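Priority: low. Protein: Agmatinase. Input follows.
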Amino acid sequence: MSRKSAAALALLALCLALPAICSAAGFNQSWFVWQDPSDAFVTRLGKDKDLMTTRRDTSKDPKREAGLVNPQRYAFGLLQAGFPTYLGAPMAFTTDDLKAGKVDVALVGMVVDDNGGECWGSTCMTGARFAANAMRTLRDWMNFPTQGTDNYIGVDYASQLTLADYGNVGVYYNAPERSLEEIHKVLSEVLDAGAVPIGVGGTHIQSYAFITALAQKYGPQNVTLLHIDAHHDAYLADLGRLMHNGNLLRVAVEQGLVRGRDLIQVGLRSHVPDAKTMAWMRQNGIRSHFMAEVLGRILDELKGRKVYITFDMDGLDPSTAPAVGTQDPDGLTATQALQLMRAVGIQNEVVAADFMEYFPLLDDGHQTTGIMLDRLIRALLAGIAARKQGITDPLYLNPERIDHGTA
Ligand SMILES: [Mn+2]
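Result:
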């Protein structure tokens, strides 16, 4: 064990014994590895370092009661007819709005991106920052804010769940590590309101902030990660940065935030991991499912767990989701992935989810990948709504959808 991870574990033990000490600090500084001042890789920041994430002064805003604000003009409108929000959901601006609105699921736009020159993720390609806004203006004529029926389980998630669009999270220019702290704060606002955050867009590194926010809410090592990806994201190499798209899960395990055996990976393929990384993954008990394995096995392993789903869009086959930074053939089909989302939503308490690495600038005119991302979220919402309704069989099919509705 390295000196750094020994220190992190010592602090973790202290936090578990005396939680007040750590919660008083807002979040546990030791989880944010780049804040070690003795480390050469600490980002140096200018005097206006907080400019991009300082909250706006709202004291002169007209007074209003906390709650959801619906910006839609029409009762049965196409999304583009009002102000664009994801799924046409009403907007929430603060944790009080989420609480007053009794929100079940809050959608959060994630905009941390590679900027091309400064390689932050592994793709060195810019554009994932546009994904969240692209999802709000998806050219999808099947998108009606008032409709959301899942035709496997016959559940209308739009009426069963209270959704909110919680807007995008601010970023620091050229100090991407610090953006994770802001994501952590915004996610904590959602979690404090008792809502499930679903993050959309940006690069996969942001999932580290999901992990820290969940660790703060539920305690470290109390949430199981369902990680869908072509790649293991547990690289042993740091590639000159303390953290990047490819090593965030190894860092999370080393920091004591997630146990290896609570990390369930699905869809692994490509030309990684190498033998050394595979050995590290095995030693840490990581449950890596290569494409060779079936979904039933994964559902069994997830049984009874609190689950955070982190979905790298390249986990899908490129024929299903071409607009990703790192294409790898032989991925999950649309049917497999949608079934997995629905089933996990029914079987498990899903406490957070994110859908990362969608590059709308690379998408075709039909926004094939964007529509796939939308359907993954809808399938998950349907599963969550079905669970709320009392459906327990993860592979449940609605009888009205079988045998011409005569079953
Ligand atoms: Mn990934």
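The longest strand covers residues 349-356. Confidence is low (pLDDT under 50) at residues 18-25.
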